[in-house]
Protein 1
Amino acid sequence: MSPLVFALVGLTVLITHALEAITGFGCTVLALPFVTALVGVKTGVPILATLAWILALYIVITKWKFINFKEFFVIVFFVGLGLPFGIMAFKSLDPGLLKKLLALFIIASAGWQVYRRFTRPNRENENCPAAPEGALGERLRNRIFYYLLLFAGGMVHGAFASGGPLVVLYASKTLPDKGSFRATLCLLWTTLNTVLLINYVRSGVFTAPILSGTAGMLPFLATGILIGEKIHHKVDEILFGKIIFLVLLATGFFMLIA
């Protein structure tokens, strides 16, 4: 990389990984359009995948006590069910169209939540994780809907390796505590990206330029983590919920234009 490209990639890594250190998601999909435009897909994707794995592993190790293992296994179960269907769909359907439809769904869902949280912050929101549970039938219907989101997230991940936004929609409902939300999602990303990195190693993706590029990004990653950690501990649950859906909204737009 030239010095200018190195600095631009580093700045992108710092900002996007600080956001993930705050929320527990979003760094790869937000950084991908910029980094791949600067260094190409074959270089950018492995670098970002490795940095995301390091960040998620750091959160898992340091915030282990906040992980909600019950919800983690629920997520893994339903995402795992959807994976093979996504792999089959990728082979038979137009991937470009499917990805645009997914992005539009994420924009609509996140945009509605942003509107509710900013325009009616003091009103009870039945879609908010902290809201009291309704009748048994209503709770069951809500659960089924969110399980379907996870299943769809598995399908999307099988097709595009980008099912995270749908998982985030589920986690925003079931993991109201910001520490648990972040740590549980990071355990999921650590698990998924470990499989991905093992595949990279087996297929010889990690060439010398990619390894050196990844090593060069580590100071930017560390700085992003420090900034994100400070912000995460300062924001309250209400502001944290707003940040989650703002990042998710940005993710949808980035998926739409990528």
Protein 2
Amino acid sequence: MPEVLEIESYRRLAETVVGARILAGHADRYLAKKLDQPVAWDRAVRGLRITGTSRRGKLLLLETDGPTLGLRFGMTGVLMVESQAGLDALFYGPHEYRAEWIRGGLDLEDSRRLLIHDPRRLARVEIAPDLDELGPDVIGLARADFDAALGARGEGPALKARLLDQSRLAGIGNLLADEICFRAGLDPRTPVGRLDAAQRQALFRALGQTLRTLGRRGGSHLGDHMEARTPGGLCPRDGAPMRIATVGGRTTYYCSAHQR
């Protein structure tokens, strides 16, 4: 499940093709689902030169001398440049490569190919994606932007549901949301409107710590709570039983003792 840390890894890989001109684009009907038709990808990208890379949350952006190209990776998408992948494997994805799982990509003038490998067929390409639908990127997020994203009117949604809302905060997925709440000591079901100032500060601190620590470790699946993310698991911090709930439509693990 690529989250912001995985997409940042993809962005660094994409940096290796900056400066190359695109000879052709390829997209199957799944990858091109947000376009009028698959051939629209080739028509839009042919002849463009890649001038840079950026990212907003889980959306990878290829800057060109024409329109910006957007790459979304769904649940199991991995970026590849030739045989080099942005990640060895995704935690919940298949740990293997199959040629039939290549959904499309770009042919470059230097004979290299930038590819999207996606067994679940949920990755998408976009031309000039609308960034207004996304909140601020969570890496390097300012405290004022964080507070604005949480909101404070009424009880509001559950904390984890708010963290997963990409229109509020771009980049947090299921694993990061659980790890952030675990480190902050907060019940992910808590309505955001009930968080007091100390809890908001703890949450903001946990957000930064989680991104830095898991970034160094190598991905969203390497959090402190992962060993207990199983039915019958015990909290690695205090040994209390882990509870399971559905929050924001996602399976959620949290400690029955220290997360309140």
Protein 3
Amino acid sequence: MISGFESIQLTTIILIVVAGFAAGWVDAVVGGGGLIQLPALLLVPGIAPVQALATNKMGSIFGTATSAATYYRRVGPDLRTAVPMAVIALAGSFGGASLAATLPAGVFKPIIVVALVAVALFTALRPTVGELTALRHEGHRHYVVACLIGAVIGFYDGLIGPGTGSFLVIALVSAMGYAFLEASAKAKIVNMATNAGALLFFLPHGSILWGIGLLLGAANMAGGYLGARTAVQQGSKFVRIVFLVVVAALIVKLGYDIWQENFA
């Protein structure tokens, strides 16, 4: 088992740092940083997939915590919605992670690709969606819908993971009526909880590579801080554009995975 950096070349360490920074930035704006970070971790010699997943979660929680704090100071998202949603998402993520070892991710990838295509079309064909906050639900219904989103996407993050932040953002925009910027702010709080839920499962199993994880976490923090500041300064239109780019990249990546697994 890898315990530190003994078998890793300097170029790989530099790549992990750069990937962690870029992933933190993307995650802070719209989510989807795992597209960048996880493949970089898989370049580490001798790393097992479960170690890559666990270490990815460790690095990510530093970034999501930093971007969540930055959004909170600058956007002030409503914690009465975000906190219950995050608590439910944490439990869902723990449950998903506990099943991750028994259910192959390949079973779900075609469904995820179809869902992402639908999300991309919905966002592209409705350019005014997410420009301004216009809540669709009131009272208890608002919180019930928020918690349902947290439970489903939290479970998904623990089980599979790719695109969790993007799914959170589009769910908050389309199902609840938030603007893209405010949706991103709430999504970071929830995403931090889903990372924590998965880590609670991985920690007792000794799957985390601590040296790499802490280095990744530091890079993620820097990227997360800069990404959140950029999103706040540029506003919802900028977040929407980055969202579409990240979703398109997710579709290509998962589509390629499906092709390799079934036809190559």
Protein 4
Amino acid sequence: MKELSKHCALAFGTLMLAGVASPALAAESASDATCPMFRWTTLGTAGGPIPTEERSEPANLLDAGGMAILVDTGDGTVGQMARAGRSYGEIRNVFLSHLHLDHTAGLAAVIGLRWMNNHPGVLTIHGPPGTKELVDGIVASMAPPARIGFGLGKPPAPADGVKVVELADGTVTALGPLSVRAVANNHFDGAGNPAKAANALAFSYRFTMGGRSITYTGDTGPDARVTALAKGTDMLVSEVIEVDRMVAVIKAQRPDLDDAALAGTRTHFATHHVTPEEVGKMAAEAGAGRLVLTHYVIPGPLGMSARSLDAKVRASYSGPVDLSRDLSSYDLGCSK
């Protein structure tokens, strides 16, 4: 990765794997009142509900002005935080892009282990309609361990440690110096989609602090609303899919699926996710300062397709592109 000039108006740093988000570094950066930390760490970069040995399920950590915020909580979130040298006890806010399990399966551990270890403070879960039902179910599942108890003092009732805020399209949430805007995207659109029939929403988010911003697509197909949300953003964090390769892998792994099921799968991938070419167009049209690719719905080790993936993105986008790994970290510094 080329090191960007420290004299740029906005400096980005990329650190791979171990120690990228240590508490000591967080405290050091957050202590600079003139330039509070604004850093994004990809805890898990896998895409879809099929575990892989290379990448953990979708989850991200945002450090913003002394706050530690989770953005999606796929399976393995708390373990990935530990690998990054961080504790789920730091978390006070979670933002869920949508309620597919590959983005939420780790939330039970975040809620439950915070309670079990009697961490202080209330955890606020922000998400689309249905989030309260999801969290209520997690809290209900904690009734047996609550009766059993644990050795770290007497924790409060599980429900007392968590709060839910369900968001609407266009909602802006203020958390101290951080502003978070939620915009609905087309991940659940389409005739016959049960999610659409249930009035479910999938969100993309823009996180803004001072003059700096990070836009996170969550899961989405090509959508003008997402491009508009990302207009002029310093860093666009986007999902990406290679449709043909994924369909071929699914066909090989699931010989029980008939042609109609595979055709439906292809339509979903092509409509409700974004290809490398589409990601490049979106980043270019938005004028994003940097593009970070995550949520790889791409089979096999990333290195097998990194070169072709990069070339497809760069057909439209000429800015810096990062193919993130688990625990990659991106620090948006300030002008000096």
